[in-house]
Amino acid sequence: MATLTVRVRPHTYQVLKKMAKERGESLPDALDRIVEETRRARMFKEASEAYAAIAADPVADASWRAEIAAWDVTVGDGLPVEPGPWDER
Fold first, then answer.
1. pLDDT at 16 over 70
2. Distance set, CA 68 to CA 43, 50, 51, 52 (Å)
């Protein structure tokens, strides 16, 4: 696997080294994991904020619910429809 050199401040290096040691990881593996966890957390936070903005706007919320209902007919798997979190209002 190709690698690159990344310069970090001494404090950051010490924190990374400690985190890697706590999990028994190499520094590159620890950095990979931390970057991926941060990326995923940001993605979920942004999605949550977007859904909250839709829910706060009655017109956007009604439009979103109508779109979900329209797509629900495409499931066609023969299973009974179960209520979801969008039905809890």
1. yes
2. 21, 16, 13, 16
